[in-house]
Amino acid sequence: MEWDELPALFPMFGDSSRWLPLLQSHQALIVEAEPHTRVTSVAHRDAVQRHYAESLETWRLAVQVAGHEPAIVVDVGSGGGYPGIVFACLAPETTVHLIEPLQKRARLLDATAKTLGLANVTVLAARAEDAGRGPLRGVADLVTARAVAPLAELLEYTVPFAVLGGALVLPKGSALEGELAHAHQAMAVLACAHRQTLPMRPAISENVVLACFEKTGETPSTYPRRAGIPGKQPL
After folding, report:
1. Pairing between β-strand 121-124 and β-strand 95-99 as defined by DSSP bridges
2. Which of 150, 132, 142 is nearest to 168 (CA)?
């Protein structure tokens, strides 16, 4: 997939002369940073599709799920800014908080957002377990996380950030059904419900789907557990 294919795939985002150059500049910054801060194993030839088209599709479907553009987004484990930076480029009125535990990547995200002029982006260099007990707890209309952890573990990282009734839209692959089967306890404990699974359009990805959840109650004060525990002892 090439850059010039994106406007035709995403006409709903309006004039591509506003957002497409930002995405191209973001990719150039990520490539430039590779010698000292590597954020992805995806080959350059696949980046437009795997990083940008899939992130754009995630935003399209997330807005569809929510019924409106979310005011506040939390992207857990943002890495190079997929999908959080892409969201911020599309929706300048949306505040996007990027949670990234690795200091080098967090510094790159912060520098990239400043270079791109994305005043709607904040970066928190912290583990999700710690950030989920801080000021971002219970503030997000939309929470997302890409390639972070299996679902039972991932829900503990993400649900605490959502407002009551907020949406969690989590890109997943072919293992989703099995992960859902093992996540019932996590959903019950953390007070969230799986509402639907939405496939991406085949032109974007034939493998990625979005697991969509709603936060149905307040997150118990004991969650998220301290750093490292959700990974070692998933709910």
Report:
1. parallel
2. 142
Tokens linked to 122 = 């904040």
How far, in Å, CA of 211 to CA of 200, rounded?
11
Domains of the chain, residue spans: 3-232
**Residue 13 in tokens:** 């985002």
CA dihedral of residues 117, 121, 127, 132 (deg, nearest 10): 170
Residue 193: C-alpha distances to residues 94, 165, 189, 214, 233 (Å): 25, 10, 11, 5, 21
Q: Which CATH number fits domain 3-232: 3.30.565.10, 3.40.640.10, 3.40.50.150, 3.10.129.10?
A: 3.40.50.150
Q: Which two tokens stand for residue 234?
A: 């998933």
Provide the residue-wise pLDDT of the chain in tens; the chain has 235 residues.
Answer: 999 999 999 999 999 999 999 999 999 999 999 988 888 778 888 899 999 999 999 999 999 988 889 999 999 999 999 999 999 999 999 999 999 999 999 999 999 999 999 999 999 999 999 999 999 999 999 999 997 789 999 999 999 999 999 999 999 998 899 999 999 999 999 999 999 999 999 999 999 999 999 999 999 999 999 999 999 999 9
| Three-class DSSP category at 27 | helix
Instruction: Classify strands 121-124 and 140-145 as parallel, antiparallel or unpaired.
Output: unpaired
Location of structure tokens 């270079």: 115
